Amino acid sequence: LGFGLRLSLLARPGLHPDEALYAGWAARIVDGSDPALLGVYVDKPPLQLYLLAAAFRLGGAGAGMTPDFPALEVLGRLPGLLASTASLGLLYALGRQTYGRPTALLALALAAVSPLAVRLAPTLFPDPLLSLWILLAAWAAGQRRAWLTGIACGLAYATKQQSLLFIPLALAILLAAALPTQHQPPLGNQRAVPSPHSAFRILHSAFRLPHSPVPPHLRRFLYGFLLIVVLTLWWDSLRWQWMPSYWERSLATYGGLTLISPAAWPERAADWGELLTYAAGNHLLSLALAAGLPLVAWAALRTLRARGPGQRAARFDLLLVGFVASYLALHLALSFAPWDRYLLPLTPLLALLSARAASLAMDWLRSRPPAIPRRLAARLGGALLCAGLLHAAWQGAFGALPVGDARGFDGVAALASYLRASQPAGAVLYHHSLGWHYSFYLYGAPLELRWWETPAALAAMAADGRQRPQLIALPAGQDERGVRQELRRAGFELLPSWRARHPDGSPSLSLYTIRPVRVEVASNAY
Description:
globular, 5 strands, alpha/beta
């Protein structure tokens, strides 16, 4: 079901501006013109970009070839689709090793139909891949496979900067899994960790300090993590001589992180709460989650205080609840933009906690006296849950949710195709908000792209380039009066050339030719 819902959105048209930017970078890699991306300001780690390039290569893109851009859109979405589907399997494995099969199945169902996860899966964003590595790290940590945990955290680091918020969770799970218990066998696989191959043993012997205070499992974690980190830093260091690191560039483009005034917290809480509703699927499941988190924390504290069975599961409960609460508080108090994809890696963890809360509620119901109509309550709860899941699935596949929304840029691909076919080499195309789309859809086209900041700057550039064909595309929602006035003062006018529309028929964007104003000379007859 989860794969089918995600697959249904694979061929939807259009790209978000960030997706188009990543696709433009991947095009530079796949055609060999800039394989290390040394000619552009990159603000993301390399892993997702090279996976996109590999997907484009499957579509026949390469040096000297005119790519099929609609086909590249679909191929570029395949890594996210496959990563999101694999994440469902890892979520089930994580839930089963921690809580058992029934809870794992319910968590899998909740994650499979989550509209946020469904709609962001077939995209070019790095977040589906980041979610995969986070779940792999959590599962491997629960199995006490420190080397694999480090590798997964390193891959997350090479995918997106947000991974730094999740690596402490994997480490905490790894440490908690190593703690002994009296009443319950250790969590996960009890077999000895397989010995790594000879290269790892040589490195381990060479760098091991006598009487090292670092536990062996933490050393193995660091070896795996640093292996990927060093490769990522090497790739980034290739541009340090003349360009900023992707870390520095991301801080510049994002504007940095600052503390938010408490007076703005209610508004931000409403924004993040709306996104959490998209993650759950509807208000019913959102309310169940809000009520379930305190229940999970309370039950875990009681189990740990009683020192009874289930201590490992209780520790995992507290880790997840504490992490989710800290993650949301951090995004509320700091100037993180309330973007849907920031909650995508949190969605499977929320599904797992929701399933755990439902399992605890069912256990409590079973422990009540027979006077309580347990079967009726179970059937009623099951019916409500099924209704909520079906509604969430419909919202994910067919609902008009503003998640990963690229509808505001309908027609850019058709515009680029029109420009390639109709404009001569050397024509100038001015852009203000469509530059990232042009970097992909017009990649390799013999057009000169010029960015304008203000209408006055646009008019000045148009005056300098009056000897060449000049064009500009303006989105339908953009106020054109300032552009027209400044161009008129400089002696130019906008001549409509082409128009794109949304699927509902409303205007999407308009292409204009910038040409000198024609002066009509009147003659008087005497």
